Amino acid sequence: MSLVERPIPMPGPGDVQVRIEAAALGFPDFLMTQGLYQAKPPLPFVPGMECAGVVTALGEEARRHGWREGDRVMAAGLTGCVAQYGVFPAGSVQPLPSPLSFAEGAALRVAYLTAWVSLVRLGRAQAGDWVVVHGAAGGVGLAAVDLARALGLQVIAVTSSDAKLAAVQALYDPAHGLVGPVGIREAVLDLTGGRGADLVYDPVGGDVFDEACRYTAFGGRLLVVGFASGRIPTVGANIPLIKGFSIVGVRAGEYGRRFPDHGREDIAAVQALAEAGRIRPHVHAALPLGEWREAYRGMQERRVVGRTVLLPQA
């Protein structure tokens, strides 16, 4: 990876050019730079899946859809956000919710859309359900804690250290917090009165997934979001059969591509919650673009609570 000067990209007929004020980094961005993510863009590529900024130029088709120069927006794509300017299809650009800063807006879409598709679309969450969130201090985990509370769920946040758990509790005050993976099963069963978790949100894999197979409730949903631990777990088919729970794979972006009407509804729902002040992303650090190495190093060393954001114009 290197910082280089390139021509400013120009929009096509259906595109929006954005002066990027903030670009949020997530674990997929880190994996993509190593060739370890499921999507592998051809080299060279500009990393970054989500950002926020100001519209600076438009194609005619994008203009007919209502966008104007000066609009404050969020944008998303597989790549292209860690830059001073980016070009995005008009359909991948949304208004920046008014309560959010550019840095917070950059950190909203990917993490909260993943949480929404997981908990609401695929998890069928109902108010009062018990949800265990693994990796609760990470970008998608912290978003799930915040969203679950807004939906009226009873949240058990699981982190890898006491310090991270204290940070999660200070930010979003989940009903309960645990440090795992040792002892999670017994604690979850005790907290839920022996029932187990209705939903388990797992972006971690490894040992905590193994534990979740032992405490997911009968009729519950174990939501597979990712494998930040580095170990992709396996489970015998007899376990969900005997214990009566479902294992559900979550790819929020792919879900939206396959079901575009649902995808638009999901993005609108997340935006509405943010506009109403019911959810708010946490920015761990906002760094100038020149400090991109430190931003990636923080993810590699698992020091980040929420999202680190780069500021290309700083």
TrEMBL record:
<dbReference type="InterPro" id="IPR013154">
    <property type="entry name" value="ADH-like_N"/>
</dbReference>
<dbReference type="GO" id="GO:0016491">
    <property type="term" value="F:oxidoreductase activity"/>
</dbReference>
<dbReference type="InterPro" id="IPR013149">
    <property type="entry name" value="ADH-like_C"/>
</dbReference>
<dbReference type="InterPro" id="IPR011032">
    <property type="entry name" value="GroES-like_sf"/>
</dbReference>
<dbReference type="InterPro" id="IPR051397">
    <property type="entry name" value="Zn-ADH-like_protein"/>
</dbReference>
<protein>
    <submittedName>
        <fullName>Alcohol dehydrogenase</fullName>
    </submittedName>
</protein>
<dbReference type="Pfam" id="PF00107">
    <property type="entry name" value="ADH_zinc_N"/>
</dbReference>
<feature type="domain" description="Enoyl reductase (ER)">
    <location>
        <begin position="2"/>
        <end position="310"/>
    </location>
</feature>
<dbReference type="InterPro" id="IPR036291">
    <property type="entry name" value="NAD(P)-bd_dom_sf"/>
</dbReference>
<dbReference type="InterPro" id="IPR020843">
    <property type="entry name" value="ER"/>
</dbReference>
<dbReference type="Pfam" id="PF08240">
    <property type="entry name" value="ADH_N"/>
</dbReference>
